[in-house]
Design brief:
This protein has no helices and 16 strands. The protein is an all-beta fold and about 260 residues long. The protein has two domains: about 35-140, Immunoglobulin-like (Sandwich); about 145-260, Lipocalin (Beta Barrel), CATH 2.40.128. The two termini are about 35 Å apart.
């Protein structure tokens, strides 16, 4: 069944991004005495599934490309502690002659699921211009392992069956994180491959939904995301979720997940 969002008088706030690209705002061309090595941006996020992860690449750029070169690299965790053994970072980056870019390959092993690891990569400043980005923080996350606890039901007042606003109802597979029994995942609620994860609070009643993609497209506006809060009572999660796309917000809707019998321990 094709999901439809019936939109009446929707006001999406579209950002005017092109104005930031005017010539007057462009910086000067690099003119320096070093190789001009830098990161393009100072932050990056990497998420791995529960299994099948190996590592990721971080791009480094340079201005002077005539010769092959090796640049020293160091790493530390954001809190100042040493990098754990499960994360392997090379001690240098190799540029080929004529190349503006090179990749740092970071290997990731059996890190703790559900924990953010903030890795800081540091370039040798001897090769960097004055305005270079020589430090980059990479947030590394490994997902939990989930196990199915049964079939529940999802009721949506955002996606409706008709213009009269009849809520969309569908059976859903519900899974629980093995490493965190307060995390429940409704699998493929609106589209296969897009799940909704609900976090039950320590009081066993409050519920939170971190911002996450739930559908590849809403009415031609692109990927749809949800976030919000709710409550758990008698095996039913009732949440007020905000539906957004990159251009703005569609507002909030009451969304309901009826958990399978026996899902709550």
């Amino acid at each position: 069944m094709r999901l439809t969002k019936y939109i009446l008088g929707l006001g999406i706030a579209v950002m005017s991004l092109l104005t930031s690209c005017e010539q007057d705002n462009m910086g000067p061309v690099y003119e320096g005495t070093t190789m001009g090595v830098t990161f393009a941006i100072n932050a990056q996020s990497v998420s791995f599934p529960a299994t099948g992860y190996e590592g990721f690449d971080v791009e480094v750029i340079r201005a002077e490309t005539a010769e092959a070169a090796t640049v020293n690299l160091s790493a530390v965790m954001a809190d100042g502690s040493a990098v754990p053994a499960e994360i392997q970072v090379p001690s240098s980056i190799n540029f080929e002659a004529g190349s503006h870019t090179a990749n740092i390959h970071v290997s990731v092993g059996d890190i703790t699921p559900g924990q953010n690891y903030q890795l800081v990569l540091i370039l040798d400043e001897a090769n960097a211009p004055v305005d270079a980005i020589i430090q980059k923080t990479v947030t590394i996350y490994r997902d939990y392992t989930y196990a199915t606890v049964g079939i529940g039901e999802y009721i949506s007042t955002f996606f409706t069956m008709d213009e009269a606003g009849t809520p969309y109802r569908t059976p859903v597979e519900v899974q629980r994180a093995e490493q965190n029994p307060n995390l429940y995942k409704a699998v493929g609620v609106f589209e296969e491959g897009y799940d909704i994860v609900f976090q039950i609070g320590t009081d066993g009643r409050r519920v939170s939904v971190a911002r996450q993609a739930v559908i590849s497209d809403i009415s031609g506006y692109g990927t749809g995301y949800v976030s919000g809060n709710g409550t758990l009572e008698d095996g039913t999660i009732t949440a007020i979720l905000e539906f957004t796309v990159s251009a703005g917000s569609f507002g909030t809707a009451v969304e309901t997940l009826i958990l399978p019998e026996g899902a709550i321990e």
